[in-house]
Amino acid sequence: MRLGYRLASIALRNIFKFLFGLKIYDSKRVPTAGRLLIACNHISKLDSPIVGASIPREVVFAAQKEIFRGFLGVVIRYFNAIPVTRSGFDRSAISILTDKLTEERAVLMFIQGGISRGDEIKIPKPGIGMLSLKTDTDILPVKIMGSEKSERGWREASKLFFRSGAIRIYFGNIIKVDSIENLPKDSKESPRILAELVMSEINSLGKG
């Protein structure tokens, strides 16, 4: 891990712990090396920096290309962000992510695509399944909870500040794709099936 990346992650993590009482569970489940897909739910604009700072290794992630401007663009590029289009199938982004995985990097993906707000439940996009099967990469499910309050106006957002556990992140067990039974690797439906399985694992985290 680059020194600047490490120091920034530590600083952000401590800021989030101070502001939101951030609690991180089972981060030791993150392999320190090797290719890895990290799949997370998406409930607020805060998710990217909070989840990214909570992962104990460098990660590559996708961000909307509209924010790659000026100083912000320079900063997020340093933290391994790659630009993607808002809609449709971005072949360039998929190609870059594929290359990063073949370089034994870790890639963070918010598998629902956009932010799920309120009672809305976005179904997972098949992209993570496609990347996993294409590169033979295992998947680590991650769940963030609590940050959705930041999307509900100031009154709800204020409930996040200085409260222990207002935002929580749970790391699950690695899903070894080769060991999944009854997953047709050569079917067009396989990426969707795998993405739904991962989403189910994410939903099960933080319970009990």
Terminal CA distance reads 34 Å
Order of helices and strands: HEEHEHEHEHEHEH
Query: Strand percentage, roughly?
Result: 15-25%
Strand runs, count: 7
**Radius of gyration, rounded?**
17 Å
- How confident overall, as mean pLDDT? 88
The profile of the biggest β sheet is: 7 strands, mixed
Alpha-beta classification: alpha/beta
| Uncertain stretches | none
Roughly what percent helix? 25-40%
Sheet with the most strands: spatial strand order: 1-7-6-2-5-3-4
Shape annotation = globular
Number of helices: 7
What this model shows, in words?
The protein has helices at residues 3-20, 47-54, 70-78, 91-102, 127-135, 154-157, 190-204, and strands at 23-25, 36-40, 60-64, 81-84, 106-110, 139-145, 168-171. Helix 3 (70-78) links the parallel strand 3 and strand 4 (81-84). A seven-stranded mixed β-sheet has the order 1-7-6-2-5-3-4, sandwiched between helices. The protein has 208 residues and is an alpha/beta fold. Helix content is 36%, strand content 16%.
